[in-house]
Specification:
The complex is a heterotrimer of chains A (323), B (397) and C (325). With 397 residues, chain B is an alpha+beta fold. Chain B has eight helices and 19 strands. In chain B, 30% of the residues are buried. Chain C folds into two domains: 180 residues, 3-Layer(aba) Sandwich (Rossmann fold), CATH 3.40.50.970; 129 residues, Rossmann fold, CATH 3.40.50.920. The chains are: A alpha/beta (323), B alpha+beta (397), C alpha/beta (325).
C-alpha cells in the first residue's frame, strides 16, 4: 500500500475542485446557450482522474473519453485552452476544430478525448507499445467506461496489451450506466474487473468515490507497468451525478433514483473531511481554493469569449500535415 | 471415335468465319492435313485442313454460312459411325453469346433521334467551332445520335457554309466563315494597334547570285527548288532571333515574349486569306523551309489544312511581290505585334562606289505595334534583316 | 535493369526503410516467421527481430488502433491488414481515429503511419477476400491512398509512404505479387501524388490502376494494329490525385476511359469522370467511359469471377465504343 504524501493529497483535493468548478461553469455556459455541441459532465467522478493522474508525468500518455474534461484537467491542461475549445475559438487546444469530445495536447501526453466508445483502448495500447520500443519508463493510461467494456475494441486492445506485456493501465470508470442502459442490462458480469482474468492480467475493483482507494490501487498498477510487468485493469466504481449529457435528466432510465445515495459519497466532501482529520488543511482551505479557482475560471472564460473564431480557411487546414 | 471439327480461330480478334466452299462431300475420305474447306474472315481467305484421317461424316453448315469460332462445322470418323444430327453447340460458346449481348446492350447508347430542336454537339466540337468561326448548328454530325463531333467541324471549316435560302436579294450573299474571321481579325488589329510603318530598300543582288549559283546543287542534293521567298523566310527567322523585340504579344498589362519563332506565311486563297504557321522557323534548314512552306500553301489552297497549322504564330510575313506591288503596309496579324511586307524584286538603279549601276532591289516593310515595339527596335530588326539579305553569310543548306 | 517480383519489391522497400530509420516497425498477422501470407515480409523477422516485426493476434481494430497510438508517440509503424476486406472490421479506427486525429487535434499530432493491405479478384478467394475497396478510403479526408501497379512503383511508393508524415493506405493486388518487372537496386523513391504516363497515345486517354494497368497496356498494344493510338495513365496515387497529368492528356486526346477493378457504382473512377467533365469539358469529343467490375459480390466460380471483373477485352471494347462511336 502506498502511503500518500501531504503534497499529493493536497494536489488531489485541488484537482478535484478544479474539475468540479470547471464542469459547473461549463454547464452554466452551456445552459445559457453559449456553447455549441454537447457536453458530458464528469461531476461525481473526480476522484478517479485525480487519484490516477497524480502519479503521472507529462511524458506519460492518456487516452480519454467523451466524458473527458476531468482527465484533461488532471493531466494539466489549462482552463484558457479548454474554455476556448468549448467556445470553438481559434485559441482552443484544437483550434476550435475538435470540441469537447476531442480535446488533446500532445505536449502534456493527452492523446485525445474520443467520441467513439472504446475507440481509445487500442490506441492506448499502441502508445504503450511505442513507449516500450523507445525504451522509456513512461506508460499509458486508458480511461473508458462500463459501456466501452462491451466494445470489440476493449477486447482487442487489452488482449494486445496483455500479449505483448505493454506498459499500460486500463481504467474502467464504471458509473453503472452505458448512456441510458443500466449495467445489469448491458452485461452479465457485475465486476468488470473480472474480465481481466480472460487476459491473464490483474483486475482490481477500486472505490471510485474514494481518492485514496484510487491512489493506492493506481499506484500499484502504474508501478507494475513502469517495471515492465505489463497491464492492469482497474475498475473504479463511481457515479456521474448528472445525466449522460448536459440536458439529460436521467429520469427516463432510473438514474435519478440511484444518484441520491452516490451524492452522499461526494469525493470532494469526503476527502475534505479526511484532510481536515489529518490536519493537512484548514477549515477555510476549500473556500479559499474555490475563490482562486473561480477567479481563474472567470479570466479564462473572458479570454475565450474575446478570442477570435477560426477563419474559414482554417476549416481546410490540418487535414494533412502540409495543409 | 468421331472427331468434331470446330470453326478455327485464326486470329486474335477473329470471332466468326464464313464458309466459302467445301472441297469435300459427305462420305468422302479425307486425310489429316488435307484441305477440307475454304473460309473467309475480315476479308481474308483461309484454307482449312482436316484435323484427322477418316470419312467426312457430316457437314454441319453449308457454304455461305457464318459460323462463330469454336462451333462445330464437321464431323470426321470411321465409315458408318453414327453422328448426332442435332449438333449441340459447345456450352462455352452458348454462354458467350448472351454475354456479348448483355455487354453491348448495357453499354450501347440507345440511339434516339435528337429530341425537339436540340442539336447534339460534343463540347470539344463546340469549342473548335467557336475558334474557327464555324456555325456548328449547320454542320452535319457523324457521331452517335447524329452528334456533331470534332472531325465534323474540321471538315466544315474547309467548306463554305451552305447558303440558306432566305433573304437573298440581288447582289448580296452571306459572308463565308473564313471571311467573317478575316474581317473580325482585321478590325480587331486596326482598332487596337498603334501602327508604325518602316520601309527599307534591300539590295537582293547578292542573294540572287547565291540562289542562282546554288540552285542546281540544292535541287540535286536537297531535292527542292529553293525560291527567293524561301530564302527571305530563312533569313527573317534568323533576324528575329537576333531581334526578339519584334516577336512579342502585348496583353495590356503584360507582354508575352515568345520562346519560339513561328512565322505565319500569308497565303492568298480564292475567297480569302489564311496564314499557316512555320513552327520554329529559326531552327529549320532552307530545304525544310522550302518544302514545308510549299506543302502548307498547297494544303491551304486545297482546304486540307490541319487547324493546328493555323495556330501558334508569333510573327507574319506577307509577300505581294508576285503581283508587282512595290511596297505596301500590311495589317498586323493581331495579337502579334509585327508583320513584314515584301514587295516585288525589280531592276532598279543603285549606287555602288559612287556610280549608278543596275541592281535588283525590293522594298521590305515592317509594321509594328508601337505600344510595345518602339521605332528603334523595329528599325534594328529591319536593318538586321537587310544586312543578312544583302550579305548572305550563313550558307543555307 | 534487373526484374523482381512485386512482392519482393515490397520486402525490399520495408527492409531499406527499417534499416534507415529505427522508428519504423511492422505489425500484422503472420508477418513474422511466416513472412506474411503473401510473403511480403519474408526474411524481415530474421533480420530485425520480434520487437520490430510483430505478429499480432487476429484483431484488426487492435492492429490499427495500436498503429495510431504508436505513431502518436513518435514511432513510424507499418501495419499489415491481410485483406482489404478486413478493413471493414477496423473501420472505426481507420476512419474515425487515424484519418481524423490530426484535424481534430488542431494540427498537433504525429500520424506518420502506413497501413498496407491487398485486394483484388482472380484466385477464387470469393466474396469476402477479393474486393477492391479503395474508393471507401479515397472518400475520407485525412487519408492518403496509394495503389502501385508494378514492382518499380511498389518499391518506390512504399518507401515514400513510410517517410510521409500522414497516414497512407497502401493497397497492393494479390495477382500482382508474382508479376516480375524492372526495379533498380539502388536507392530511389517514387513520389506520392504523381501520375505516370505508361504509354503515350493520341486517340484516347485511359486512366487505369493496379491490375488494370497491364490489361490496358495490352489492350493498347492490340489496338495499335487497328490504328487506334491509346494513351495509358497510371495515377499511382488516388489521393492526392495528379489531376493535371490526366487533364492535359484529355485535352490532347479528347476522349477519356477510366478502368478499375472496383465495382463501377460509386467506384473511384466516377471521381475522375466528374473532374474531367468539369475541368476538361470543352475538350471532350465523346462521353466518358468506365470499365469496371460488375455490381455483384465476387463469385467463387473462376468462370463467373472472370466474368465480373474487367479484362483486356472489356477495355478494348470500351475504347472502341469511345473512339469509333
Amino acid at each position: 500500500m502506498s502511503v500518500i504524501t501531504k503534497k499529493n493529497a493536497l494536489w488531489i483535493f485541488e484537482t478535484m475542485l478544479r474539475i468540479r468548478r470547471f464542469e459547473e461553469s461549463s454547464i452554466e455556459l452551456f445552459t445559457k446557450g453559449e456553447l455549441p455541441g454537447f457536453l458530458h459532465a464528469y461531476i461525481g467522478e473526480e476522484a478517479v482522474a485525480s487519484g490516477i493522474c497524480v502519479h503521472l508525468t507529462a511524458r506519460d500518455q492518456i487516452t480519454s473519453t467523451h466524458r473527458g474534461h476531468g482527465h484533461m484537467i488532471a493531466k494539466g491542461l489549462h482552463y484558457k485552452g479548454m474554455f476556448s475549445e468549448l467556445y470553438a475559438k481559434q485559441t482552443g487546444y484544437c483550434k476550435g476544430k475538435g470540441g469537447s469530445m476531442h480535446i488533446a495536447d500532445q505536449e502534456l501526453g493527452v492523446l485525445g478525448a474520443n467520441g467513439i466508445v472504446g475507440g481509445g483502448i487500442p490506441i492506448a495500447a499502441g502508445a504503450a507499445l511505442g513507449l516500450k520500443l523507445q525504451k522509456t519508463k513512461d506508460i499509458a493510461v486508458c480511461f473508458f467506461g462500463d459501456g466501452a467494456s462491451n466494445e470489440g475494441a476493449f477486447h482487442e486492445g487489452i488482449n494486445l496489451a496483455s500479449t505483448w506485456k505493454l506498459p499500460v493501465v486500463f481504467v474502467c470508470e464504471n458509473n453503472g450506466f452505458a448512456e441510458s442502459t443500466p449495467q445489469k442490462n448491458h452485461q452479465s458480469v457485475s465486476d468488470i474487473a473480472d474480465r481481466a482474468k480472460s487476459y491473464n492480467i490483474p483486475g482490481i475493483v477500486a472505490d471510485g468515490m474514494d481518492p485514496m482507494s484510487i491512489y493506492e490501487i493506481a499506484g500499484e498498477a502504474i508501478k507494475r507497468a513502469r517495471s515492465g510487468k505489463g497491464p492492469t485493469l482497474i475498475e473504479a466504481k463511481t457515479m456521474r451525478f448528472l445525466g449522460h449529457y448536459v440536458g439529460d435528466p436521467g429520469t427516463a432510465y432510473g438514474h435519478d433514483k440511484v444518484v441520491g445515495k452516490w451524492k452522499k459519497m461526494d469525493p470532494i466532501v469526503t476527502f475534505e473531511e479526511l484532510l481536515k482529520q489529518k490536519k493537512w488543511i484548514a477549515d477555510d482551505h476549500k473556500e479559499k481554493l474555490i475563490n482562486s479557482i473561480n477567479q481563474e475560471i472567470e479570466e479564462a472564460i473572458l479570454f475565450a469569449k474575446e478570442s477570435p473564431e477560426p477563419d474559414f480557411e482554417d476549416a481546410l487546414e490540418d487535414v494533412y500535415s502540409d495543409s | 471415335m468421331a472427331t468434331q471439327m470446330p470453326m478455327p480461330k485464326l486470329g486474335l480478334t477473329m470471332e466468326e468465319g464464313t464458309i466459302i466452299a467445301w472441297r469435300k462431300e459427305e462420305g468422302d475420305a479425307v486425310k489429316k492435313g488435307e484441305i477440307l474447306l475454304d473460309i473467309q474472315t475480315d476479308k481474308v481467305e483461309y484454307e482449312v485442313e482436316s484435323p484427322d484421317n477418316g470419312i467426312l461424316l457430316k457437314k454441319m453448315f453449308d457454304a455461305d454460312s457464318v459460323v462463330p469460332c469454336g462451333e462445330n462445322i464437321a464431323v470426321i470418323g470411321a465409315k458408318g459411325e453414327k453422328v448426332d444430327s442435332a449438333t449441340p453447340a459447345p456450352k462455352a460458346e452458348k454462354a458467350k453469346e448472351p454475354v456479348k449481348e448483355e455487354v453491348s446492350t448495357s453499354n450501347e447508347t440507345k440511339a434516339a433521334a435528337p429530341v425537339g430542336n436540340r442539336i447534339f454537339a460534343s463540347p470539344a466540337a463546340k469549342r473548335l467551332a467557336k475558334e474557327l468561326g464555324v456555325d456548328y448548328t449547320t454542320v452535319q454530325g457523324t457521331g452517335p445520335n447524329g452528334r456533331i463531333i470534332l472531325k465534323d467541324i474540321e471538315g466544315a471549316s474547309k467548306q463554305p457554309v451552305p447558303v440558306t435560302a432566305q433573304a437573298v436579294s440581288y447582289g448580296t450573299e452571306p459572308v463565308s466563315p473564313m471571311r467573317k474571321v478575316v474581317a473580325q481579325r482585321m478590325s480587331e488589329s486596326w482598332s487596337n494597334v498603334a501602327r508604325i510603318t518602316l520601309q527599307s530598300e534591300v539590295d537582293l543582288t547578292n542573294l540572287l547570285a547565291v540562289r542562282n549559283a546554288s540552285s542546281q546543287a540544292w535541287e540535286t542534293d536537297l531535292g527542292v527548288k529553293i525560291s527567293i521567298n524561301d530564302l527571305i523566310l530563312f533569313y527573317t527567322a534568323r533576324a528575329i532571333q537576333k531581334c526578339p523585340a519584334v516577336n512579342v504579344k502585348f496583353l495590356g498589362d503584360s507582354v508575352e515574349r515568345a520562346e519560339q519563332i513561328n512565322i505565319g506565311v500569308a497565303v492568298a486563297l480564292e475567297d480569302g486569306l489564311m496564314v499557316p504557321v512555320l513552327k520554329n522557323a529559326n531552327q529549320k534548314s532552307i530545304d525544310a523551309i522550302s518544302s514545308e512552306t510549299n506543302s502548307l500553301a498547297t494544303a491551304a489552297r486545297n482546304g486540307t489544312l490541319d487547324p493546328g497549322s493555323l495556330q501558334g504564330g508569333t510573327f507574319t510575313v506577307t509577300n505581294l511581290g508576285a503581283y508587282g506591288v512595290d511596297h505596301f503596309s500590311a495589317i498586323i496579324n493581331f495579337p502579334e505585334s509585327a508583320i513584314l511586307s515584301v514587295g516585288a524584286a525589280r531592276e532598279r538603279a543603285v549606287v555602288k562606289n559612287g556610280e549608278v549601276v543596275a541592281g535588283t532591289t525590293a522594298y521590305f516593310g515592317i509594321n509594328c505595334d508601337h505600344r510595345i515595339i518602339d521605332g528603334a527596335p523595329a528599325a534594328e530588326f529591319l536593318k538586321t534583316l537587310k544586312e543578312m539579305l544583302e550579305h548572305p553569310k550563313v550558307m543555307p543548306a | 535493369m534487373r526484374e523482381i517480383l512485386y512482392r519482393d519489391a515490397i520486402v525490399e522497400a520495408l527492409d531499406e526503410e527499417m534499416k534507415r530509420d529505427k522508428l519504423v516497425f511492422l505489425l500484422g498477422e503472420d508477418i513474422a516467421e511466416f513472412g506474411g501470407s503473401y510473403k511480403t515480409t519474408a526474411g524481415l523477422f530474421k533480420k530485425y527481430g520480434k520487437d520490430r516485426v510483430r505478429n499480432t493476434p487476429i484483431s484488426e481494430q487492435g492492429i490499427v488502433g495500436a498503429t495510431l497510438g504508436a505513431a502518436l508517440v513518435g514511432m513510424k509503424p507499418v501495419a499489415e491488414l491481410m485483406y482489404i476486406d478486413f478493413t471493414a472490421v477496423a473501420m472505426d479506427q481507420i476512419v474515425n481515429q487515424v484519418a481524423k486525429v490530426r484535424y481534430m487535434f488542431g494540427g498537433k499530432a504525429k500520424t506518420s503511419l502506413v497501413i498496407r493491405t491487398q485486394g483484388g479478384a482472380g484466385r477464387s478467394s470469393a466474396a469476402q477476400h477479393a474486393q477492391s475497396l479503395e474508393s471507401w478510403f479515397v472518400h475520407i479526408p485525412g487519408l492518403k491512398v496509394v495503389m502501385p501497379s508494378c514492382s518499380y512503383d511498389a518499391k518506390g511508393l512504399l518507401k515514400s509512404a513510410i517517410r510521409d508524415p500522414d497516414p497512407v493506405l497502401f493497397i497492393e493486388h494479390k495477382l500482382l505479387y508474382l508479376e516480375k518487372s524492372a526495379a533498380p537496386k539502388k536507392e530511389y523513391l517514387v513520389p506520392i501524388g504523381v501520375a505516370e504516363i505508361k504509354r503515350e497515345g493520341t486517340d484516347i486517354t485511359v486512366v487505369a490502376t493496379s491490375s488494370m494497368v497491364q490489361k490496358s497496356l495490352d489492350a493498347a498494344e492490340e489496338l495499335e494494329e487497328s490504328g487506334i493510338s491509346v494513351e495509358v495513365i497510371d495515377p499511382r496515387t488516388l489521393f492526392p490525385l495528379d489531376k493535371e497529368t490526366i487533364l492535359s492528356s484529355v485535352r490532347k486526346t479528347n476522349r477519356l476511359l477510366i478502368t478499375h477493378e472496383a465495382v463501377e457504382r460509386c467506384g473511384w473512377g466516377a471521381e475522375i469522370a466528374a473532374i474531367a467533365s468539369k475541368e476538361a469539358f470543352d475538350y471532350l469529343d465523346a462521353p466518358i467511359e468506365r470499365v469496371a467490375a460488375k455490381e455483384t459480390p465476387v463469385p467463387f466460380s473462376p468462370k463467373l469471377e472472370n466474368f465480373i471483373i474487367p479484362n483486356k477485352k472489356d477495355v478494348i471494347e470500351g475504347i472502341k465504343r469511345t473512339v469509333l462511336g
